[in-house]
């Protein structure tokens, strides 16, 4: 039992403790860990896996509560007798995930959803958190403004004006615990009688969200400028969800002309709106930043969505939405009674984080970090230039490799997998096939060091060059 | 300008800084504060109003950003020239609120939504928060489990088992940023094809939420045992939202017989469910606590909702929901992709708050505090015993006074208002009149001291005795 070689995937959707839990559970179910066998101490396993002790404790706690292991005072943890145990049915997906945990072991994971957490400003965060909890007392624990605290909304407006060319007032801003929540709230503001157009390929999270809210969702074809407005016109959709600053997943930056076309489309009918999800606009490595679509929204047609999850940390459940006038009125009439989903403490921390300059410094730091990784990746992929072309570079935290002919996407992914490299197929993001798709893989670089990118590129070039 | 006698209502929906902002804005608009007049310093005003300085700063910041006041370095704040200013349209409700702030000045506010924040365990909270931010690092800022952290869900299950007789597993628990959010999530899990029954009079927040989610909502008549199941049977509703442990607002505790009837109704058809909102079950001052309805849910028909907003502090945006088997599967299939709305830090704080015994101690403390206030209120209302009867006592944080004939509810409220006492009319909670309503007022006592209750009761008895 000294060799619990669990291959942890920190970027994975499944939290680390759960990966450990799932792995050990499986080993017990498979009989690889036999009844009565002693497990390593939480301290030892934490040290071995390089995770915090509380992570291992959580995993053991879950195993204990489900009866897979037993704890003997002063002696430690032991695998239990598992026959006849009561099980709560596990969903099918989890079974699939389990298989992944024990079977797939990745050395390099090019997830497009990564964030570099090593550069997170822990000290500043701790300091702000401590200051806020010391400064204030009862006021901090009273129910706050449903839209979010005024001062925080004000700080966001200043930021949006300077960084994104968006002219908004705090009255228009709504704070929420993540973009998923804000989209749900937006659905309640809009009502149910709408058809929503999404880009194809799409940011699946938003697509699935609209489906879960019972909307009719229509995928709209893209070209190199983004969503095709003439295709949009052929559909009955009255709301278009777009990611113009760096389309997810294709990385397309929508040029001004297409933006104007889209705004014109929205202006033609009263109930048409554009949802602009500006999820990673903070990261741009070349040329002058393009202001947000919302910056040109003279007719009050654009709903703007921004987030701190990408630019600060995924666990910061803090996003914001700027509503145009007509929807603001509807929000106030129908939805303002809904309580805020973000604690005042968190709002104050991020407000001071912005106001005291930490946010800008943090953005500059991660931007330069990501730019270096981006450059190293481009350099490392050069040997493949005859085989494929690079798309969606110079912005965000991922790029795409489009291969011409012969090889299939599945083959590319499988070859990488055999070398324990995880890459992502574009077809996962396609909602409706149009028959002209070329094999394309996504490579995210926020979560890998330059050295890791170099090494992984050497391998990818070798195996993909044919 | 030395007499900014702003009558702050700490229990109000509108945050304190906004009350200050609205008051000063009005004084400027009315010309009571004239152009060029100097405002008190933030420090002075904070001291005078007994609020934190940052509260006043927020109010001034908002006034500054809207151009009502101007700041001169080293000299302070001055009322600005307001003619020709650009205004963003304010919603009608705010206008109403403004009127309240400056015109209604309450000495005693019997809000039924109060929480005693003086007893909030600030030191423990600060300590836990500090420990957690020091202990852990990157792991804490990674995206967490969509359902909430396992260890926290586990702690909630233990609590529910001991305190509410609910047998659940962490797999069934979903953590969310407040009950409003969890109800929205539940709507996505359930889908749109349902008719929802609510108690009449109702907890308006839930009623409005279901309406905002485009459901047909039917109010069901109540008797002294809660929702009438025979009336429910006459409607097409397949989901019943109830508050059996202490009905909001009538305070009715649903007896076992009615609970069984309700469970039987749900068991008769596959798509029938009961939503049990156990919002203030922690507070009960007489007799043995009745286990939650969920404790008898052998047929997996009850969705259980609990919250820390009532029992810890309103700004703690943390509630939880226990799903029965069939809905858990639907959640996993359709909604598990939705990210958690609560930060890991907050989850860990509350988890340790529970596990290290702070929660139980805090509950015991507030329970005994509220019980004393409850007893003082009952004692203070005795002189009215010929005029009205008391309902809904012995649990929660409010009770009701039902008057027999002659006097109208509006009259009772108005009389109290003239003495600067705020009481709440039951008719505000009624969705559909049945014609037999008696004039009834709600008195909440969580937010008033015993002395305040005694004094307010003396006045109420005098003015309501006729």
Walk me through this protein's architecture:
Two copies of one chain form a homodimer. With 466 residues, chain A is of the alpha/beta class. The first copy, chain A, folds into three domains: 16-103, Orthogonal Bundle (Arc Repressor Mutant, subunit A); 136-357, Type I PLP-dependent aspartate aminotransferase-like (Major domain) (Aspartate Aminotransferase, domain 2, 3-Layer(aba) Sandwich); 361-464, Aspartate Aminotransferase, domain 1, CATH 3.90.1150. The first copy, chain A, has helices at residues 16-29, 42-49, 53-65, 92-103, 122-135, 138-141, 150-164, 179-190, 204-212, 229-233, 256-267, 325-334, 344-355, 358-381, 409-418, 450-464, and strands at residues 69-72, 76-79, 108-109, 173-176, 195-200, 216-223, 226-227, 239-242, 273-277, 302-307, 319-322, 388-391, 398-403, 421-422, 424-425, 440-444. In chain A, helix 11 (256-267) links the parallel strand 8 and strand 9 (273-277). The longest helix of chain A has 24 residues, at 358-381. Chain A starts with 15 loop residues before the first helix and ends with a helix. The model of chain A is unreliable at 84-103 (pLDDT under 50). Chains A and B meet through helix 1, helix 3, helix 5, helix 6 and helix 7 of A and helix 1, helix 3, helix 5, helix 6 and helix 7 of B.
- Based on Cα principal axes, name the global outline of chain A: globular
Q: Note the total helix count of chain A.
A: 16
What CATH architecture label of the largest domain in chain A applies?
3-Layer(aba) Sandwich
Strand order of the largest sheet of chain A: 4-11-10-9-8-5-6-7
Q: How many E strands of chain A?
A: 16
Could you name the ranges of chain A where pLDDT drops below 50 across 5 or more consecutive residues?
84-103
The CATH C-level name of the largest domain in chain A is: Alpha Beta
Counting structural domains of chain A, the number is: 3
* Biggest beta sheet attributes of chain A: 8 strands, mixed
